[in-house]
Write a structure and sequence with these properties.
Chain lengths: 94, 471
Amino acid sequence: MLDKKEIDHLADLARLSLTDAENESLQKDLEEILNYVNQLTKAKIDNLPDASVGLSQNQVRKDSEPLVDEELADAIIKRFPQKDRRSLKIPPVF
Amino acid sequence: MIKEIHQKLISQEVKIGDLVNVYCDNIKKRNGELNAFLSINKGSLLNQEIQNAETILHNNPEELLAGIPIAVKDNMLVKGLKTTAASKILEDYVAAEDATVIKRLKEKGAIILGKTNLDEFAMGSSTEHSAFGPTHNPYNLDLVPGGSSGGSAAAVAADLAVAALGSDTGGSIRQPASFCGLVGFKPSYGAVSRYGLLALSSSLDQIGPIAKNVSDCKIIFEAIVGKDNKDATTVSLVNNISPKDLKSVKIGLPKEYFVEGVDSEIKTQIDLLIKKLKEAGVSVEEVSLPLTSLALPCYYIIMPAEASSNLGRYDGLRYANPNGFNGKEGLLDYYLRNKGTGFGKEPRRRILLGTYVLSAGYYDTYYKKALQIQEAIRRDFNKVFEQVDYLITPTTPTAAFPIGAKTNDPLSMYLADIFTVSANLAGVPAINLNLGFNKQGLPLGVQLMAGRYKDFSLLDFSEQVERLLKP
């Protein structure tokens, strides 16, 4: 069902690098799993409800009550693996 | 157990520091063979917690959790301790703050002993998918402890902690509790804050206790339950009910859970429990949850879809940088290299699966259909809970299986969750109790479920069932 090209495409979208051996075993695994979950796509159920919007109700909070305090922000920045002052350093985008 | 220890602490028969030392010694003696803990709390951090607990106990002698040593699954943040989610990609990450559940436990004076092993990012049912080696079942070291909260379950079963926190997305608290002869409670969706839990599937994840008895689970649940501004799904839930007389309780046995493939010893022991319940005056009827066979396929669409999005944040840039920059590559190559080597086999499998079911052309076929089935499953549960108060089912089809038995066959591993995923999809509370032991001396589990937000009622009933289960 899924060939090498498709697995490579998915891996590319997910930003994962795969070896050829991994690609091969994933073709087999994903095919088996998709065959299993296809029970669901094939199921004929009368009066299927609309897709759920989750189990929760909307909740709002005032903008004046920030969730992150300064001390925590500092602690998080301190943990950046590579940084330039308070900025996170990353490899060049292009 | 917590209440007995608490008595000894307030009578000063035992000091908190000595109690903690007993558990630290147990860890030293047994963690080598069990691999239940990935990291241990020690030094000034631990001493500070002990002092804090002493003050809390002194000021409030009724605080049951003050001084109680607890283990925490390594996918929850504990300030100053490593939080790895059992993944290479977070191998060196030290948490900057406490998860809300940890904050609440510490406010009550509980002592965090350390962080326990799990399947990488909680993806698995055996704790074999940990980047730091599998955990072994204390009942038989050749067997798995279940998963993904296998380290937490093994730690409690082997007396390396009084109780533990786990997380449950499709059965990850209840199934290991069942394999290790413990009580494991997955609260209603929305009962406990997940702030500081490394998310697997945000619409299904829930944190809960694993302990030796229902009373201990209840004490921990009462400490962590309730609304939190940092998790918008949480509601306030208060214990304002008194336990029901068993004579007025109605139990449902969903026929779809008592099918072929369930171990005959589990069936026999559940029959025995039903008999005892009937003798105690409980009314028992067969009920139907017609979509049960679709719950696991539905779960294996929703969970990977959400997981593939949630794991996007582990980019090797913000939290930890296991491989470092090499100065030559651009951002894309950096991502490919880090995510390719940082994530283990199972996360990669699920990331790709999630990417697939969410991609253009497949979204309606898979993800939308799964959400529709999920809603239908919820309605079925609501309907059943109009008929009966609680459901009783097996927790797992079998007792613990050997290490290595399912690692090469992902689908057979997934099937270990067949009876537990529905509670997550429906958002209802569910608990595993130790049903007894099989002929090989391995623990077997029984699962009890209740309607959404009936958590306290389920715990009260579970205590009554626990008494009936005692030999």
